[in-house]
Automatic annotation (TrEMBL):
Organism: Corynebacterium hindlerae
Claim: Magnesium is one of the keywords in the record: no
A GO MF term: nickel cation binding
Keywords: Metal-binding, Nickel, Zinc
Protein's recorded name: Hydrogenase maturation nickel metallochaperone HypA
Gene Ontology BP terms: protein maturation
């Protein structure tokens, strides 16, 4: 379960960014290729931040599907790990779904 390690790293980053402010919510963008189960990450977050200043902070996870684009400009969202353009058959590049990004940290300043 790598979600615990991700939650630990996330908590460190949020703590550094927020400083002394109380964190209410952390908004994340997580891509399908990261192989993160959002529910498991949320559970791990609760475990990691329990009894810390982040204990009341909630995660808001925005799921980003796998997206590929071929050189002809065709964009698709394959359901399988297939990087072949379904329109022209050309090998396509990943253009979405590899994210693990903090979008926003909602805080209250004292």
């Amino acid at each position: 379960m790598h979600e615990v390690a991700l939650s630990t790293q996330l908590a460190r980053a949020v703590t550094r960014a927020a400083g002394d402010a109380k964190v209410l919510q952390v908004r994340l963008s997580i891509g399908a290729l990261r192989q993160v189960v959002p529910e498991t990450l949320d559970y791990a977050w609760g475990f990691v931040v329990k009894d810390t200043p982040l204990a009341d902070a909630e995660l808001d996870i925005h799921w980003v599907p796998l997206q590929i684009t071929c050189s002809a400009g065709h964009v698709s969202e394959p359901q399988e790990l297939d990087f072949t353009c379904p329109i022209c058959g050309e090998t396509a590049a990943v253009t979405g779904g590899n994210e693990f990004t903090i979008i926003d940290i909602e805080v209250i300043r004292s």
